[in-house]
Design brief:
globular; TIM Barrel; four-stranded mixed beta sheet; 416 residues; Urease, subunit C, domain 1; 20% strand; alpha/beta
């Protein structure tokens, strides 16, 4: 084969094929060739040296408007959120909301740039990013995230979620702010129904979010049942609303930590509903003491992925926007340590994560979008063990300028 291509990756090892080596040709933002020995005139040639080449990483859940706000906060919210059985999770959210009284786009955008540049460095090319909209945050966070979405276009895709963090029924005007955020250009309608005070209000929260989603023809992401209360059932309501509205494949549930306390028969019923709704679940076990029952959901055939959740904010002190690091932590927390478990975890930060946020053809095959990482590791086990930055990251068919990303991390400014 002889033709002109943009990027040629030589001597690649692909997942599940340790004995073979492939070359990957990339042109016009897509994978255009995949063979054991390509001959091509390429603008850029990369030697993978027999190491693993895979799909890039996808972060399905990040509160991007709050990154690096921990120095602005005391630790009261974190103590309540990480307390025994997460019984004070609602109090933690109320305490954490204080930071929004100081919201200003001028400092939020700087923090956002650092977090997104780190995503690029660690091979993350897509983020579903939450921005709070309420009486304190107003639309300040949404505007900062939309600005970052434009700055990082074709480097890291940012799906901006207009997120009613403090409720819809209990927070007058929040629904109107979500609508305004959608009019500004937000990509996803975000809710947190369990935060409401009554079952009727929880149901109304879900209904309003789907009303807005239908109005703007947008997907829905909701933080559901994020507390140690086995009586919480907003995930079920969300799945039923998805089915009733025909929003199959366009709804994504996050956290569902109360699931850890559900009886087995109800969990199986819930799994059946999730499959019928074609609905994924994002788990972030590293940011709280309870988590969705990932293994059982996987056994039932439910779509599950992982998210970063937080980076140095009132809920979680760590984080580098490194999805391999998240998978490494989850491997310990869920005791997913066999080789097959590792492959599953890798799917949960690449292909399954992409599926959860509506990305199609996110795989290493001819015709797929070229979102690719070249690791300095021979296999998934070593990739998880070291969770290091890839040697090369290709986003939308273009090699990311890592020096530029490092400069943004250091300065938190977009280069002139």
């Amino acid at each position: 084969m002889t033709n002109k291509i943009d990027v040629l990756i030589k001597n690649c090892q692909l997942r599940g094929q340790p004995e073979k080596r492939y070359d990957i040709g990339i042109s016009g933002g897509k994978i255009t060739a995949l063979d054991e020995n390509l001959t091509a005139d390429a603008q850029t040639v990369i030697d993978a040296q027999g190491n693993l080449v895979s799909e890039a990483f996808v972060n399905t859940h990040l509160h991007l408007c709050k990154v690096y706000t921990l120095p602005m906060m005391d630790e009261l919210a974190m103590k309540d959120y990480h307390g025994a059985d997460m019984g004070k999770a609602m109090t933690a959210i109320e305490l954490a909301a204080r930071v929004k009284e100081s919201y200003d786009e001028s400092w939020i955008i700087k923090n956002v740039r650092k977090a997104v540049a780190l995503s690029a460095i660690y091979g993350g090319t897509h983020i579903r990013a939450f921005a709070d909209v309420d009486s304190k945050a107003k639309l300040i966070g949404v505007k900062a995230l939309i600005r970052a979405r434009e700055e990082f276009k074709d480097i890291v895709d940012i799906q901006v979620v207009a997120f009613a963090q403090d409720g819809i029924v209990r927070e007058p005007g929040a629904a109107d702010l979500v609508r305004q955020a959608m009019e500004l250009g937000a990509d996803v309608v975000g809710g947190i129904p369990w935060i409401e005070f009554t079952d009727a209000d929880i149901a109304e929260h879900v209904k309003v979010c789907y009303d807005i989603a239908e109005e703007f023809d947008k997907p829905v992401s909701m933080l559901v049942d994020d507390a140690g209360d086995p009586g919480l059932r907003s995930l079920e309501l969300m799945a039923l609303e998805t089915i009733n509205r025909g929003w199959h494949g366009r709804s994504l549930a996050h956290h569902a930590r109360a699931m850890s306390m559900y009886p087995k028969p109800y969990l199986q019923k819930l799994a059946a509903l999730l499959k019928k709704a074609e609905m994924g679940v994002v788990s972030d076990p590293h940011t709280g003491p309870l988590h969705a029952r990932v293994r059982e959901l996987l056994e039932e055939g439910v779509l599950v992925c992982l998210g970063m959740d937080d980076i140095s904010d009132a809920y979680y002190p760590y984080g580098r926007n490194n999805m391999l690091e998240v998978a490494f932590l989850v491997s310990h927390l869920l005791w997913m340590t066999t080789r097959q478990d590792m492959e599953t975890l890798y799917d949960m930060v690449t292909t399954k994560a992409a599926q959860c946020i509506g990305l199609t053809n996110f795989e290493i095959k001819v015709g797929s979008p070229a979102n690719v990482v070249v690791l300095d590791e021979p296999n998934v086990l070593e990739a998880l063990r070291n969770h290091a930055a890839p040697d090369y990251v290709i986003s939308h068919g273009k090699l990311i300028d890592q020096d530029k990303m490092q400069a943004i991390v250091k300065t938190q400014e977009w280069p002139a």
